[in-house]
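Teaching note: in complex prediction, the entire set of molecules is handled at once rather than each chain in isolation. The prompt given to students was simply: 'Predict the structure of this complex.' The entities are:
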Amino acid sequence: MAGALTYTAVDSTSLSTAEIYGQALVELGRAHPEVVALTADLAKSTKIGDFQKEFPDRFFNVGIAEQDMFGIAAGMARAGLVPFLSSFSVFTSLRAADQLHTDLCYQNVNAKVIATHSGTSFGQAGSTHHAICDFAVTRGIPNLTVICPADGYETYNAVMAAYNTPGPFYIRINRGFDRVLYKDANYGFALGKAVTVNEGSDLTIIATGSCVFQAFEAAKFLEVNDGLKVRVLDMHTIKPIDRDAILKAVMDTRRIITVEDHNVIGGLGSAVAEVVVESGKGCAFKKLGIQDQFAPIGLHEDIMNMLGIDSNGIINAVRDLMKMDFEEDDDWDDEA
Amino acid sequence: MSLSKQEWLALEKKAHELRLLCLDTTSWAGSGHIGGGMSCMDLLTVLYHKYMHIRVDEPQWPDRDRFILSKGHAGIAYAPVLCDLGFNDPEMLKTFNLSGSKMGIHLDSNKVVGVDASTGSLGHGLPIAVGTALAARVLGKDYITYCLLGDGECDEGSNWEAAMAASHFKVTNMISFVDRNECMIDGKTEDVMKLEPFTDKWAAFGFIVKDIDGQNIKEICDAIDFALANKTDKPVMIILHTKKGAGIDFMEGNYLWHYGAINEEKYNQAKASLEKYYAARVARVEKEAQ
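The expected output is the structure of the full assembly:
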């Protein structure tokens, strides 16, 4: 696992998330000659220019042709290379969905998709460039591991973990800078294991991506102003989802709010709900995200505010859910 | 590599045996894509029995030549080739398309030994072949990647993305073919979605294009020899002018035989036709071989 590598590349406070990915890729490229990078006319936007400079023979810009990029990557992977494909999430999950499904995942090749400009983070570009259903698409494809890092440090960890784990990966990162959640990269990242960012027993917020920082801010505010102890889980791995952390949240807090920069259909909230319902345990539950609509245009932080997935929206949702009775009695023994 | 008369006859014999095995497989399965299988059997035979460097006892040999069957529905022709070579137990062919079998219509590269890519969704093979060929360059290997497309498949835009990439990246360690049998599910290619001027299109995308009789083993060998000797920086596309259902008189050129069912009567009729076809082809070799 990533522990074998030295964490030197990232400075999460001065580099955008994609730039951190770009640096992590250079680091991998230096250590592993089989690592190659592909993009579809988005080398600048996805920040893999450094890799191109250092390894021009291992860098392939296929032009604006995402389907071709995925096929090329699959061929390379089957021949023994480890391709990292970078493009905008909306294109990696939709334009090239058939190739992602068949060439990468059905063949179960060792290729890593770095999906940038995810969610509504390319806000002003409008809905043609928002990726609001990529979790729904990627969660449904067997063999694919789906990660949505919370900040630059976590992006670094995710990229390293993807390299160190055979099989296809989909890593969803934002455009531009993310608010920095972690102090450094050494906080114990493990694939498929949620990070407890804040302990609490009254309610659990399960968040992913840029929403984790917002949830953490909300939890701190609620502790000071409402006296609430809110647990915050960074659910960076959307698939396979951390069932244990979800079930523990049900048992310990019995109130769960999920927060994601994605449609509430098919994403994190749906994944968590599946685990909760299958457990047979009662739980007050609310999904925050894009409420099955195309998102408005604007700056990412403004859109998050409009969608109610920033700290203010989360605070309001927590207060509402604290008022909800989740069942008539407190007797857990009569439940399945 | 010039083709001796003896070698030509041997390839004819193998192609005939494989056509019969494809017919048997269709019969065991009850139905299948026999039309497009028969049209490409000569190429499959030539590639696997003359040109490709492969090791049956080491299927994943890193230096092996690759073959990407982009027209994945021709699995019913490809599976007999791979079983006959010994990559898979020929008994598996009796399970083709049956519930629980490792062999479905479109062969799975993780289940059927010798398959270099799982295809079936059309327009995927050429990009994969480009990637496979580019990987050879990065890894410093000299294997050749062969790729066979269907002609109807060329409606898919992703092929043309890959064609641009092959030309742009000067992918000359890849040799591509189109099985130009002029048929697709709903009709003749020119009626459903016009492909012509087909040769000009590939040439415009930067390929050296050879138009040949895809049912003539000598012409196929000559074209591959030409492509292997290519010293330009352009990739080669070989358009195989073929007949859907080649060798089976009641299927030949009929788009309705894209996929069809075989009963005992049809099986016997097809077998008799294939024997006659083989005899005519041998006679041709006797006449034309040097």
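Point out the following to students. Chain B touches chain A through 39 residues (CB under 8 Å). Chain B has a mean pLDDT of 97.
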